[in-house]
Amino acid sequence: MERQRFVAAIDQGTTGTRCIIFDRQGRQQASAYEEHRQIYPQPGWVEHDASEIWEKTVRVTRAALAQAGLAPGDLAGLGITNQRETTVVWDAETGLPLANAIVWQDTRTLGQCQALIDGGYEPLIRSRTGLVVATYFSGPKLAWLLDHVPGLRAKAERGQALFGTIDSWLIWNLTGGPDGGAHVTDVTNASRTLLMDLGTLDWDPELLQLLKIPRQMLPEIRPSSDPRGYGRTPANGPLGGEVLVCGAAGDQQAALVGQTCFAPGEAKNTYGTGCFLLLNTGDKPVASQRGLLTTVAYGLKPGSCAYALEGSIAITGAAVQWLRDNLGLIKTAAESEEVASTVADSGGAYFVPAFSGLFAPHWDMYARGVIVGLTRYVTKAHLVRATLEAICYQSREVLEAMEADTGLKLSALKVDGGAVANNLLMQMQADILGVRVIRPTVRETTALGAAYMAGLATGVWQSTDDLCANWGVDRVFEPTWGEDQRAAGYRGWQKAVEKARGWVERE
To answer: Residue 445's closest CA among 288, 195, 254?
Structure first.
């Protein structure tokens, strides 16, 4: 094999960690995956063990290298993509986490977020960060940890306690940990903290003061693709050799890159634990009037970036997991397609999976999940089909908000993520949206985007034009529903959402 033409991507997601090695044509050469535990200490709380995530990251990376017959020195570079807002604090001297990671889905910061809204700070926060005040983002999670973990604030003020999203935690460990590890994050992940100014692409002193967060515990913000590299893995480190760590992007931004949505107006939807629809808006941020987030799409050089509008949906694939793990209605997530295919529709039932409240475009922290429209006619198969429909209807809400904000009318939607293997789901998405749904040949576009960031930094690819040349279509799903059927189904969905809203009473 030709040396230095391979790039590794670590894709650290909400439920597991994958390492994929790609060649210059963007083809997968090897892949390894392991799940990690989901920890639920209280209703609404979701945690991960950051040490477990690090251990599994090492294992899958070694396994992928072994599968490909490569050593770390055979890689041109290593890129990382990650579950974004999940918040880690750790000891700079011991390298140990100082608490479990608080996952992006966690809602324990509801009181803090409401206090910011009641204090009149949301317009300031929105204008600086492009984000709404919600339990979703890292800043309030970090503030909660500083207030509730004994000794953490004192350590943070001394510079001994470090904060990062999962990308920072992995990069720090990969590049040496307590022995000189690089404490950095990329501009996409920084843009999800509620602490970064979208204009300056740096931490905002006023927001840090508002949330009482010591500046010295925050990572340095770097481009998503960095020719200097963030650092190298040590020759005697856990990977067993040196490789330049030089690419990073939050999972949804990485998928946008993997789908080669480099032109303003191009959009993709990723179907994972949640659903995340991103639209490239070019080199200027677009403020949403309809509940979307303004976020960084990717940064290819210091001090500049491309921006995106994002519609974030908290629970989509996780609702299918809930059917499997909590209710036992299906044995595997893949079985949802087979079971749902046994009925022609959902029998009038709707399922709004607002387990973590409603994200875009509603941003209702007090919403909770509901199943409505039940009759004796409804069976297990109807509920499974209603769960798949919920994924599609939530995506329609976001797409309509996006079109209204931008004045653009999408004629097609690029899709990726694990659930796009479900042909029934993709056909339902085309029918409910009324637009073509395009599935690419490489479905692991999140990992591919991280690989592209590392490969651009090291010259494996010279420009984004090289990346566009790699993109190919697997299948196009054309809408088959009439407009009356589409409108009637959506009216029912909107009635169901109203039943879910405001379910938790405010204290």
So the answer is: 254
